Amino acid sequence: ALTRRVACPDGVNTATNAACCSLFALRDDLQQNLFDNGQCGEDVHESLRLTFHDAIGIGSNGGGGADGSIAIFEDIETAFHANAGIDEIINEQKPFLARHNITVGDFIQFAGALGVSNCPGAPRLPVFIGRPNAVAPAPDKTVPEPFDSVDTILARFADAGNFSTVEVVWLLISHTIAAADLVDPTIPGTPFDSTPETFDTQFFVETQLKGTLFPGTAGNQGEVESPLQGEIRLQSDFELARDSRTACEWQSFVNNQRKLTNRFQAVFTKMTVLGNDVNSLIDCSELIPEPPAFTGSATFPAGFSVNDVEQACEATPFPTLATDPGPVTSVAPVPPS
Ligand code: HEM
Ligand SMILES: [Ca+2]
Ligand SMILES: [Mn+2]
């Protein structure tokens, strides 16, 4: 059936629902003035991390999920240990929130979904609006820590939103466009894979390689050895890649771009509405542009081969990959923005 579109008051755009109209101006403002004209840089990465830290604030100890509480009750929630550094993006987003008419929860989720559309290889993420503003902060301990055990992590996600074991792996696809500023504060902007500005499967290759070095200092809580200079590895990612409950799903993403995009879209759709009744929200997903394609293949970084893989999935051998040419390289940091 044909869907009738409404003309927006801006005189330029049309939308399936008039409530989506105000997002066009917000989209342009964010793309130009927060995301540096469509980059997949630090502000995009931090905006995605913020969608998670707001949404996961829910469970048997309370919290409203994706309700903007992390920004509305910033003084309380940013003091939680697992939210270290998240104040940076909250404060960068504040002027945009002030300039546009949108609830805080809607804003946080929209900014993340829009930002990810700048990353080559990413799926189009859905956008819903209509979340009421939070009336209370989330409790502490809802956001997983990189030093948590797999048991603790799986239990937290189950409690927050009935996420299954494979869905937890799907959520960690996010770490393909990610870096850490505070795990080792001596090397801010150190990425989790060699392509932090591409939504590719390299993260799943590189987390399976044997760790041999600390890119900065040793002894940081939640960090384990990584295979590459300039790359940092979280203990939680290391363990999820090797635990018998999660290792095969983890490995299944290696060089499987289609599955990567499909599963991240599915699990983000669930995460982005936590604490809300999706049937009471309005779907404005049409605001999200088709992300640039990723046409490459996963590879072993230069100097690495299948001999460096710590094979953890018992059922399936590690996929065959080419090795990048040349001598071992180091990974460049994500520039601060
Ligand atoms: C077991 C679950 C998770 C743990 C333990 C975890 C932990 C972390 C840590 C420690 C950092 C580095 C923070 C810093 O030092 O700057 C980080 C970054 C990040 N995380 Fe996660 N995370 C988890 C799940 C997720 C999920 C579900 C998402 C989104 C769906 C996400 C998105 C990100 C992004 C995009 C960054 C990079 C931020 C930047 O580059 O500035 N994470 N995560
Ligand atoms: Ca990547
Ligand atoms: Mn950062």
What does it look like?
- With 337 residues, the chain is mainly α.
- It is built from 12 helices and 10 strands.
- The strands form 5 sheets. Strands 1-2 form a two-stranded antiparallel ribbon. Strands 3-8 form a two-stranded antiparallel sheet.
- It is globular, with a radius of gyration of 20 Å.
- The N and C termini lie far apart (45 Å).
- The model has no long low-confidence stretch (mean pLDDT 98).
- Bound molecules: protoporphyrin IX containing FE, calcium ion and manganese (II) ion (MN).
- Protoporphyrin IX containing FE binds next to helix 2 and strand 4.
Q: What structural keywords apply?
A:
binds calcium ion; two-stranded antiparallel ribbon; 337 residues; binds manganese (II) ion; 12 helices; mainly alpha; lignin degradation
